[in-house]
Amino acid sequence: MPLEIIRNDITKMHVDAIVNAANPTLLGGGGVDGAIHRAAGPRLKEACKALGGCETGEAKVTEGFDLPCKYVIHTVGPIWRGGGSGERELLASCYQNALELAKAHGCESVAFPLISSAAYGYPKAQALRVAVEAITGFLAENEMLVYIVVFTRDAVEVSEKLFRAVERYIDDVYVEERCDAPRETLRRAYYRQQAMAAPTASAPCEAPLDLEAMLGQVDESFAQALLRKIDEKGMTDAECYKRANIDRRLFHKIKNDPGYHPGKQTALAFAIALKLSLSETQALLMKAGFVLSHSNKADIVVEYCIQAGLYDIFQVNELLFKFDLTPLGY
After folding, report:
1. Please, what is the average pLDDT of the chain?
2. Is the pLDDT of residue 104 over 90?
3. Active-site annotation holder among 33, 219, 231, 247
4. Active-site annotation holds for 33
5. pTM (global) more than 0.70
6. Phi/psi of residue 202, each to 5°?
């Protein structure tokens, strides 16, 4: 997917460029800045000395040296002062300028930390929203794979009210947890045993089956159904795959191969992008051989979002990330 939030150590990311949340001197510090300098080795500090510092919101680039990336893009985020001192604009500028530098250096993949969200005090939920908006704005006009790298899922803060509502919904409908009680487990095992022991009777056939005729009545494929839905919703192809956070190349692969079978997360990402109802989502999933199931927590989160009218793919993925579940778009 073009934008992905992951848990990892940014110094170990095998991408074309990583972004350093630097201080204005660019000479190293604590947190991510210090970790990047330590991993890159002393040559990074020498290269940074030649840059003459960096203003808040701006970005500068050096080689990656001992890091597994080609480049380090250094940007200075704003210190949080309550939100009334232009922090949002400066933070968005960090992402925009870093991405433009990455583009100018031919980078196809970039990894960002959540800039300003640690020592500089920017509230994490707001910092993440600025990051997502700035990055998706850039990706609307450019092709690049972008990661937002965090250490733990707690670094992503979704609305507490929304998180609790989804948590309650999962608790209400999650099949596996309710069936884990010993009595229910024994009951299900008993009925399975009875079903296996029961004699089977062959249903009479009024006419011989015609496999060739049956194969000639195959329903429309996932790709055909997807393209039909895009037309019905009045979207362009680009609007759809960008709203789904799906790579353009994958979309064209699906479009040009009527028999293509996507993964479940990909099919669900398109359902969210198209703002399909729950029944429409089930119908689209069936074209790919899947269903939404109450024995799958990720499916329950997606079902909740559809019923609540939450069709922002990044908000859905933030929720999935918070519950330690696989995001949509793979």
Report:
1. 88
2. yes
3. 33
4. yes
5. yes
6. -80, 125
